[in-house]
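Researcher: I'd like a structural prediction for the single chain below. Treat it as a standalone chain; there are no partners to consider.
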Amino acid sequence: DDDGFTLVAVPPVPLAPSALSATLSPAYYRTRSGRAEEARATAAWDSLRKSNDGVYNALKFRVAGMEPAATAAGAPPGLHLRLGLTDYATSAGFLRSGLARELLDDMGEDARSILPRKLGVGALLVTGDNKLVLMQRSAAVAVSQGHMDCPGGHPEPSDAGLTHEDLELPNAERLAAVGAEVVAEITASIAKEVRDEVGIPLASQLPPHYVGTVLYTHGNYSMVFLIRTPLPEREVARLYAAGPAEAFESVRLVFLPLQQRSSGRRTLVSTPCTEQARAALHLARVHEV
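Model: Treating it as a single chain, here is the predicted structure.
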């Protein structure tokens, strides 16, 4: 759209974790492309690893689809996720090589079955004195260095008990049995990212509520969660200055008063924003945060 991002599966109201469900299945894994394309993605990943010592491979969830789910009578629809597995090496290789964009341009929707479609999470983080928290990414991260972004990262399939064997030799029955663990990891992961990137303890965060998903131009996804903390800007800034576990990923925080959320791009005009940050500001308006 005009803001450079696409939103999907935006609920009418923020959804509690209990309104989310998931199915994990080998049917939702990606289809491999031609040998030349796979080799090109692998070469791009190898180049990234050589240039950045902090980059490592790990399992990731792959989004096959999202749709409304039935809930209790009178309650808003929930959200059901159809997920497979992929890994960071494949996703980064397709992105850095340009393959993801090329395949989408050449094949359109037919490319979706080939793409990694990695799932990420982002936080619409609101302080106790009604400030939205954004952070400027450092030069140490793999993508979008220097951009303003939301706290966020990726849910880890390994924290839901999954291994690389589940990617290479999947067992459909085993995968079908871990839907609840997958949802628990997705919602826990964004709270942990806020703790590790900003420094806000889990005990100082209210439960995350799902507000929408960003679909990136290269085919990956990021689920955005509203997280409120009773801590004011001053205390959040102090915790960040003390050095959270993943402080190397950013260089500063920006606190945006809620009344400025509709003009977030103008407020931060001197600093480019990621698609996720722009989408989060838009979702703040949609849900009247």
